[in-house]
Design goal:
mainly beta, 10 strands, 6-stranded mixed β-sheet
Length: about 110
Amino acid sequence: QVQLVESGGGLVQPGGSLRLSCAASGFAFTLYDMRWYRQAPGKQREWVATITTKGSTNYADSVKGRFTISRDNAKYTVSLQMNGLKPEDTAVYYCCRGYEDYWGQGTQVTVSS
């Protein structure tokens, strides 16, 4: 069955960095775009970044220049390198398959001093 498992969240000070990973299994990973979303308390889930099957990337304006999405097709993983973190980046981060039909359970990122 399709599984997406995020890891790497935690508590970090403003200006710090975190690297999230999403381990995929149960489907042909190389044939799918992959995305990261996030949901802050009391807010709707918002798109963060996409990486296509060919490695092209797109980012929400709020994270452009600070976050980098990447994928390792040999390891079936998609990662999100987050630099220059701000308190407003605090959220649960989710990875999902390109069609948004399967989602991971999420990993909490908290940016606070």
